[in-house]
Specification:
Blueprint lengths: L1 H20 L5 H10 L9 E8 L2 H8 L1 H18 L6 E6 L2 E7 L3 H19 L3 E5 L10 H11 L10 E3 H7 L6 H13 L2 H17 L4 H21 L4 H4 L2 H8 L5 H41 L6 H8 L3 H12 L3 H19 L5 H7 L5 H12 L3 H12 L1
Parallel strand pairs: 4-5
Antiparallel strand pairs: 1-3, 1-4, 2-3
Helix pairs in contact: 3-4, 4-5, 8-9, 8-10, 8-13, 9-13, 10-13, 13-15, 14-15, 16-19
Length: about 400
């Protein structure tokens, strides 16, 4: 019983800290909760370090999910007991990351102590870890800021060189503008998928972050060239050239024009927006063509024992894509469309062939048994096949 209570207390303390990190804790409750969970030592010079497993997918494949969970638990316990801090909090925030929170140490001291611990962990468990520490803060109310500083720093993995631990301050000194590789990958994905809402939000967030970092002059120009490279990469992925997509003269002039961040934001929204619209239209045309093929397949083969997987295999597309096409274009499922088409075909046979047995009609429209046929027919028509035939005969009389 005592063990269970202790475990519950640990869970609640970690939940409180996670809520603080993600900014979902009411400020009025922080002081009381800080006392309740014995966290009053976190009152000044609070450091937040985010540590990431470099290749979590490889580890899952190599160790298996259960063994990986066990290894991660041992790593957290080592960090908790042997890092050298007098007191600290350590817990997972995602499958691939955990957080270390402590207080009363300088930023360089935190960096050194965590780095030493990560070196030992990497040697003992054959894993690769990267850590980033945000700026120190002076109260738990401010802890969200260093947490996100650390997360942003991890976005610049290419700048870590051979180090396993950096501070957000170092990344800011090394980097002249904010545009991490992860965001570029996301932007390319959104454009190619035709997801303009997500792409627009990402572009606005990037510009807002650079505005907060006072990026101007040559640094702003470097940002423009970096995002311009992303734009051209998107064009290439669509199998086109920038000159063919955009007005050649105005595009060439814009590439080398000096712009402030707001002008740059507006320009990139226009150019990326055009690419995104083109991609969405292309996907719609592709989807319509694929859907037409799938419908033809049903119309030609409904009398056989066919399924969604058969249709996907026929046109070498994924089952998930087949389902998506029916949901987005017809607001139904492959199975429902097939059943409705079979029922419609059966209704014609019931009326046109008054002496044909129900079993035979069931087989002719693709049902493997009369029982299944009766159940499906009644679901769509609210009457059995036999009752439907009688009603139609009465109408004709």
């Amino acid at each position: 019983m005592k063990l269970r209570l202790a475990q519950n207390q640990v869970y609640l303390r970690e939940k409180f800290l996670k809520d603080l990190l993600y900014g979902i804790m009411q400020e009025d409750d922080i002081i009381d909760m800080q006392k309740r969970y014995d966290l009053e030592y976190l009152k000044e010079d609070i450091s937040v370090t985010v540590v990431e497993y470099v290749d979590i997918e490889h580890l899952k494949g190599f160790l298996g999910r259960n063994d990986l969970t066990s290894v991660k638990r041992e790593i957290l316990e080592y960090i908790r007991t042997d890092t050298g801090f007098e007191r600290l909090e350590v817990f997972e925030t995602s499958e691939s990351q955990f957080v270390i929170i402590t207080a009363g140490y300088g930023l360089e001291e935190v960096k050194r102590m965590v780095s030493n611990s990560l070196n030992i962990v990497e040697a003992c468990y054959d894993v690769s870890l990267l850590g980033a520490a945000g700026e120190l803060c002076q109260s738990l109310e401010e802890i969200r800021s260093p947490f996100y500083d650390a997360l942003n720093a991890l976005g610049y993995k290419s700048m870590f060189a051979n180090r396993n631990m950096v501070t957000a301050r170092e990344i800011q000194r090394m980097n002249t503008y904010y545009y991490p590789l992860e965001l570029e990958k996301n932007l390319i994905g959104y454009i190619q998928q035709g997801r303009w809402d997500s792409a627009e939000k990402l572009i606005n967030n990037v510009m807002e972050k650079n505005r907060s970092l006072f990026v101007t002059g040559e640094n702003a120009t470097e940002l423009k060239f970096a995002m311009l490279a992303t734009l051209k990469r998107c064009v290439q992925l669509q199998g086109r050239t920038a000159e063919a997509v955009f007005d050649k003269q105005s595009f060439e002039k814009w590439q080398f024009a000096k712009e402030n961040l707001e002008e740059m934001r507006c320009s990139f929204l226009v150019y990326f927006g055009q690419l995104c619209s083109d991609a969405a239209n292309a996907r719609a045309r592709e989807g319509s063509s694929a859907l037409r093929c799938l419908l033809d397949y049903i119309h030609e083969n409904y009398m056989k024992d066919i399924s969604l997987s058969d249709a996907a295999d026929q046109y070498e597309i994924s089952q998930g894509y087949v389902g998506k096409l029916f949901r987005e274009h017809l607001q139904t499922t492959f199975k429902d469309y097939l059943n409705q088409y079979r029922v419609d075909a059966a209704k014609e046979l019931l009326v046109q062939n008054p002496t044909m047995k129900i079993n035979e009609i069931a087989q002719r429209v693709g049902f493997i048994s009369a029982v299944t046929f009766n159940r499906v027919f009644k679901r769509y028509e609210s009457v059995s096949p036999g009752e439907y035939r009688k009603k139609q005969e009465q109408v004709q009389v």
